[in-house]
Amino acid sequence: MVFLFSMQSIQRPLRTFFLVSIPFLIFGCAHSIPSSTQHQRLPFVGSMAVEKFTFPNGLKLLVVEDHSSPTFAYQTWFRVGSRDEQVGHTGLAHLFEHMMFKETKTYKDGEFDKTLERAGAEGENAFTNRDYTAYVQEMPKDKLELIVKLESDRMVNLLVNEKAFKTELEVVQNERRFRNENSPDGLMYQDIFGVAFQKHSYRWPVIGYEEDLNRMSAKDATDFYKTFYSPNHATIVVVGDVSAIEVYKLVEKFYGDFKSQNDPANTIVSEPPQTQARHKTLKLNTQVQKIMMAYHVPEITHPDIPALTLLSSIMAGGKSSRLDRALVDQGITTSIDIFDLDDKDPSLFILFASMQKGKRATQAETTILKELERIKKGPIPVDELERAKNILLAEFYDKFGNAKEKASFLGHYETVSPGFSTGIEILNKISRLTAQDIQAAAKKYFEPKNRTVILGVQK
Amino acid sequence: MKLKLTLCLLLVGSFVAASAHALEVKFERDTAIPMVYLNVAIKAGAAHDPKGQSGSSYFMGQMLRRGTLHKSKKEIDLAFDQIGAQLEVETRSEALILRGATLSEKLPEFLKLVGELITEASFPEGEIIKLKREVVSKILEERGKDGALARTKWEEFLFTGHPYGNPIKGTIGDIENLKRRDIVQQYDRFFQDQHILIVGSGDSESALIDTWAKNISAKRPNRKRKDDIQMVSAPPIHTKRRVEILDKPERTQTQVFIGQNGVRMTDPEYFPLYLGNHAFGGGSFSAKLMVEIRVKRGWSYSAYSYFRQGLQPRSWQAFYFPATKDTPEAIALGLQLITDLKENGITKDDYEFAQASLVNSSGFMFNTPQKRVENILLERTLQLPDGFMKSYGKNLKEVSWSEVNASFKKFLKPEALSILVLGTAKDIKAKVAKATNVPENEILVVPFNRD
Question: What is the pLDDT of residue B4?
C-alpha cells in the first residue's frame, strides 16, 4: 500500500471533482477584511473552496465551508517538528506537544481537556512529526468561539512547571518503550533513519533518545515554546459547518494581537549525498525476519516526487503490484509496503516487508533489488501504468471522507510546502506521467550507493 | 501524541431500504466524493468456527479473493487494481465483513467482480496451501507486537473454552490442519441470504445496489442446513480472581488487562454502565483511570476501560501498559480503583461531566455516511433495535447518578476479576502475586509463543 494522489484516471478525463488547476485568486472579499490581511479564495474539492487568510502577525487561516453535518474540524499546525531540534535535545518537540495540554495563565491544569470534553469535542488529540506538530479536534457547530478561545490561549499563555514536566517525561518515556524499545518494527524504523542520515536532523527518532529525554528540564520546554509557538509559525485549518467570515472574525479577535516571533536561526544541516550502500542487521524479539530498505529521495516540492509516488504504486500499490507478485505470491513475505514520501526536506523512500515463516530477509532483499532493476530497464505496459494511477486516484478520494481528513490534507501540505495546492499539483502531474518518466526516476534514485538496508532477525 | 478512544459508531438517517427478499440491503446516497463504499456482512464470525478449526471463518473470508470458477487469484487481483478498487475482509467474533471501496465511475465493474467472488468462489487447493503459509506467518509476526498479542490472549484467557475466546486468525495447529472441505462447509453455512446484510454509501443510485443484491440472492438459493449458524451461548462467569502472565523475554514494559464479563447493549444496566465507564476510564483525559495512572503518576501513555459487545454479554476491561518497574503498583492501583468504583461509585461531579460530554458529542456517532453504515452493521450483527446507535444521546440523558452507581455495585466483581499481564515473568511474578492477592503458585505463566 502506498500514500498517494492522482488527479486523473487514464481511461477517462477526471470528472471535475477536483479542479485541475489553481488559476484564480480573489483578494479582499466583500466582508470588511482589512487590507493588512491577505485573503484568497482557492478551489478545493468539488464545489468547495478554501478561504485563505494571512494575518499581519503571520498567522495563516484556511477555512472550508462544508455544511453536510452540524460539526466542524479545527486544527492548529505548527511548523516545528523533530527536524528543528538540536543534538542532545532529541524528542523535545514531541515532549512539548504533551505539555500543551497543561495549565496556562488562564486555565488550571486539566481545564483545557475538561472544557472541550464537556462541550462535546470529538477526537481531541495532537501529533508530532519530523516537520510539524498539530493539535486537532472536532466540535459541534455552536462551539466555534469556545475552541478559538481555548486554542489561542495556549498558543501564548502556557505555563510549564517542573513537576508536571517530569510527570509528562515519564509518560513520554513510556510511549517510547511502546513505540520503539519493545517494538521490532519501531526499532527498525528508528534505525533506517539513523543509518541513512548522518548529518540532517531526520536521523533521530521523533520520540527522541532515552538519555536526551532524561536530561531535559522545564526550562528547555519553556525556551522551545517561546521560539516556535507563535502566530507566524502556525496555520489554523477549519473545515465544516462554519461561515468563513465568522471564523475569520473570531480568529482576528482572539489571535489578532499576538506578536510574531523572529524565526530561529536555521541550524539544520543538509545531508550530504550518500556515497555507498549501508547495511545493518538488528537482532530483535521477533518470530519472523523483516526487511526495511530505503533510498534517499528529494523533498515534497521536488519535481520528481510525482514520479516516485507513481513508482511506489507500481511496485506495491495493490495485490497485483510487482512486489506483491514477487514477494507475497511467491511465498517469501506476508506483506510489502512503501511509505514516507512527503517530508519537507529530502527524505527516504522506504520499502518494508515481513517474511513468511522460515524465509530469510536476504531473500526479500535480493528479490526487491531485482524488481527495482527490472523497472529501470524493462517495459512498463500502459495498463500497468493505468492501474497504478487508478489506485492512487481512489486512495486520494478516500482521504476526503470527512471534515477531519480534509483538514489534515490542507494542514499537512500547507505546513511542509509553500501551500496546500502542492498536494493537488502532485495529483495533476501524476495523471500526465509516462513510463519513461517512471524509469528516469527509478534510474536516478535506485542506485546501490543511495541505498540503506536494515534486516531484522530473531535474537 | 495523545491517545484516545473514540466512541463507537452510529446510525440510520436517509437510508433506502430495499429488502423484498431475505437478503437485506441498505444504501445511503452521498455525492460528496466520487466513491462508493460497499460492505457485504455475514452475521457470523470467528465465534462460529467449529471445534478444532479455529480461524476457519477468517481463512474462508480471505479465500474469497483467491479464486472463482472463472478467475484465478492473479486475475482477481488485476481486476480490482485495474479499477483502483479495494476489497478487504474483516473477521469479528460474530460477523464477517467484506469491505469494498471503488471510484463511483467503476461501480458496475466492481459489483460484477464482488458478485462473482461471493457466488462463484472456488477455493482452489493451491491457494489454500499458500494462504496457510501466510496466515501462520502472520500469527508468528503478531507475536512480535505486544499490544496485539496481549489483546488476543486476553480474550482467550477471559473466555477460556468459550467461542468468544477463539482467536480470529486461529491457532497455528488448527490452520495447518484445515481441509478444503472445512472451508467450503464454512462458506456454505455463512453465505445464506438470512445471514447476509449489504450496507453501503456513496455516489450511486440505491436501485443499482438493490438490483445487484437481488442477482446475488438468485445465484445462491437458500438451502436448509443442519449446521446452520446458531447464537453462541453465554460465556461462563468466573467466581474467583485469576492471573495469567504471558511470559515474553526482555520486556521493559508490560501490557495489562483487568476485567470481567460484560453486559449486552440491550441490558437495562447498559447505559448507566456506559456513562459510568466514561467517567471511570472512557478514554477521556478527565477520566479517573487516566488521571490516576497517567496524569498523576506518568505510569502509562494511556489507560482506559471499555466494553466489548456481542450477542451475549461479552467483556468489560481496563487496559494500560506501564514500565516493568511500575507494573505491580499500577496493577494494585487499578484493582483498588475498580473496588472503589463498586463500593463508592462515581462522584456527582464526575457523573454530570460524563453525561454532558457524552450527550454533547453524541452527534459525532452518526455525522458521516460511513459512520451511519457502521452503525447499521453493528445493529444488525448484534441484533439491536433499529436506530439504537442514534439513541445514545437520548438514552444517556435519561440516566441518573443513582442508576450509575447502583449498576456498578451490581455489575462489578472485584473478587473475581481476570488479570492478564504480558511481561517477563521472572521480573514480575512475585510482585504481581502480591499486588493481586493471588498466590504465586496459582498464577498461570504461559509462554508468549505457545500456540
Answer: 38
Within 41-100 of A, beta carbons closer than 8 Å to B belong to 45-46, 68-71, 94, 97-98
Percent of the residues in chain A that have a pLDDT greater than 90, as a whole number: 87
- Residue (of A154, A147, A102, A145) closest to A123 by Cα position: A147
- Please identify among residues 265-294 of chain A the ones whose CB lies closer than 8 Å to any CB of chain B: 284-288
Q: How many domains does chain B have?
A: 2
Has residue B431 got a pLDDT over 60? yes
Residue B11 lies in a domain: no
Residues sharing a CB contact under 8 Å with residue B308, sequence separation 6 or more, in sequence order: B262, B314, B315, B316, B317
Residues A282 and A243 in one domain: no
CATH number at residue B176: 3.30.830.10
Q: Which residue of B has its CA nearest to A325?
A: B74
ipTM of the complex: 0.91
Cβ contacts (< 8 Å) between B144 and chain A: which residues?
A: 183-185, 284-288
* Residue ranges making up the domain that contains B82: 16-219
How close does chain B come to A40, measured CA to CA in Å? Answer: 23
User: Residue A73's domain spans which residues?
Assistant: 38-255
- Of A196, A220, A255, the position where a domain reaches its end is A255
Same domain, B38 and B83: yes
Mean model confidence pLDDT for chain B: 93
The reported pTM is 0.92
* Domain total of chain A: 2
Shared domain for A203 and A121, answered yes or no, is: yes
B33, B130, B304: which to substitute to probe chain A, counting the most A Cβ within 10 Å? B33
Q: Are residues B190 and B43 in the same domain?
A: yes
Q: Do B84 and A321 touch (CB under 8 A)?
A: no
**Same domain, yes or no: A243 and A309:** no
Asked if B52 and B177 count as a contact pair (C-beta separation under 8 A), the reply is: yes
Hey, which residues 1-30 in chain B have their CB within 8 Å of chain A?
Answer: 1-4, 6-7
Judged by CB atoms closer than 8 Å, whether chains meet at A170 and B298 is answered as yes
Residue B226 within any structural domain of the chain = no
Distance from CA of B213 to the nearest CA of A (A): 24
- Shared domain for A104 and A174, answered yes or no, is yes
Instruction: Measure Cα distances from A103 to A163, A174, B287 in Å.
Output: 12, 22, 17
Q: Are strands B24-29 and B16-17 parallel, antiparallel or unpaired?
A: antiparallel
- Domain contains B370: yes
Give me the pLDDT at residue A13, please.
Answer: 27
Beta carbons of B363 and A392 less than 8 Å apart: no
End position of a domain, from candidates B153, B185, B219: B219
Say which residues have a Cβ less than 8 Å from residue A381's Cβ, sequence separation at least 6. Answer: none
Interchain pair B81, A331: CB under 8 A: no
Q: Which of B184, B219, B254 is the last residue of a domain?
A: B219
Q: Is B447 on the interface with A (CB under 8 A)?
A: no
